[in-house]
Write a structure and sequence with these properties.
Length: 382
């Protein structure tokens, strides 16, 4: 839980949080209300250039549409965004119109620039975000059609993706035939996030049971015992690795849930958090690196905005976080945010290596700022 022993926040931290929130509301959201919106297909473009022009689309992904649905659903009822409900409704319709497979069920991974099915495989990552987005959206609008899509996504995950041992296949063919993918960490994490979102808006015994089984399966099959880190592939797989950003992301999901806080997986990720800080966060700059081998050796020093945001969010649930939170929020603001949007990636030396702005990133910033707002609110008014 938040560090309630420190009820007085540094004025610099309060001001910086207000600044990044304002940046999100006045710079980032308008990018996807305007130039980032393909009105013809009623879909967000996959990415914008640094000067706010859509990059020539090669595809549109269902999970990107779902992430944007979450962002606009979260703004419903906010007087500063009177069009949020209309945009969320359009995104929901588009997700169904363009990506739903009427023949076999489930949702395609992607469509081509003209709206025709492109990659027709069924991947867990896509379905996890449909669950996540629809749960949040239904929590705002309570429309039966939205809940029916949520139910359909939960059902298809349970019936088609399940491996019968608490975890789920990462990818299946269009007709649900196996592709031999096995379970992978990242889609399973977002499925846990989708399950938690569902439980936050309704009582759901099967989803609760599935979430606990998933946590047990991850502990058994993905945790490296020495430091408790969550590996990207099942333990024992060749050429395995872990990502500090995912340790922080998992920690937030586990610690913010009363259901999961007492699991063995939470205990592992509590240790993993400290280890990821030690080997994956630069003590001087606060930079979060991209990838480390299972032996803790650096494999990819790229700094990605999503990992920075996940570290900031997770810090709000750590004891004595006020020692590190101001520095990390400053690093996010000064190194990644700019007057026209954000930098997606920096190289290991801190130079911009990717300046275009993917439509998927506002989800990470929105959840980060939501976590910060919850932290401040749990301690008291600011």
């Amino acid at each position: 839980m938040p560090d309630v022993t420190s009820p007085v926040f540094p004025s610099e931290l309060i001001a910086r949080f207000a600044a990044v929130q304002q940046h999100f509301r006045q710079v980032i959201v308008p990018l996807w209300q305007g130039p980032g919106w393909n009105a013809e297909l009623a879909l967000p473009y996959e990415a914008l250039s640094a000067d706010h022009q859509p990059l020539a689309p090669q595809r549109y992904r269902a999970m990107a549409c779902a992430r944007q649905l979450y962002v606009f659903a979260s703004l419903i009822g906010d007087p500063a965004f009177p069009g949020a409900a209309e945009r969320a409704a359009a995104l929901f319709r588009s997700m169904q119109q363009h990506f739903h497979d009427a023949e076999h069920g489930g949702w395609f991974y992607s469509i081509d620039p003209h709206g025709a099915p492109q990659d027709q495989r069924k991947d867990l990552y896509t379905h996890a975000f449909i669950i996540f987005a629809c749960a949040h959206y239904w929590g705002k609008v309570r429309e039966p059609l939205v809940e029916s899509v949520l139910n359909a996504a939960l059902q298809v995950v349970a019936e088609r993706f399940s491996d019968g041992e608490g975890l789920y296949e990462a990818s299946l063919d269009r007709d649900w035939s196996p592709l031999g993918s096995g379970p992978l960490q990242n889609p399973l994490m977002h499925l846990a996030e989708g399950f938690l979102a569902t439980l936050s808006v309704r009582d759901d015994v099967p989803t609760r049971r599935a979430l606990l089984a998933l946590a047990e399966g991850m502990q058994t099959r993905f945790i490296a015992p020495e430091h408790g880190v969550m590996l990207e592939k099942p333990r024992g797989a060749a050429d395995n690795w872990f990502e500090p950003g995912h340790q922080f992301e998992w920690y937030f999901l586990l610690h913010s849930s009363t259901l999961l806080r007492t699991t063995a997986l939470h205990g592992s990720l509590d240790r993993a958090f400290s280890y990821a800080e030690q080997v994956g966060v630069d003590a001087q700059t606060g930079a979060v690196c991209g990838m480390l081998g299972s032996d803790g050796q650096l494999r990819d020093g790229t700094q990605r905005i999503w990992a920075q945001a996940e570290y900031v969010r997770a810090l709000t649930l750590r004891k004595n976080c006020l020692e590190r939170l101001p520095r990390q929020l400053q690093a996010l603001q000064q190194h990644f945010l700019h007057h026209g949007g954000w930098y997606e990636c920096l190289d290991p030396q801190g130079h911009v290596s990717r300046a275009d702005m993917p439509s998927t990133t506002p989800y990470h910033l929105a959840t980060c700022y939501s976590g910060l707002a919850q932290y401040f609110a749990s301690v008291g008014p600011i």
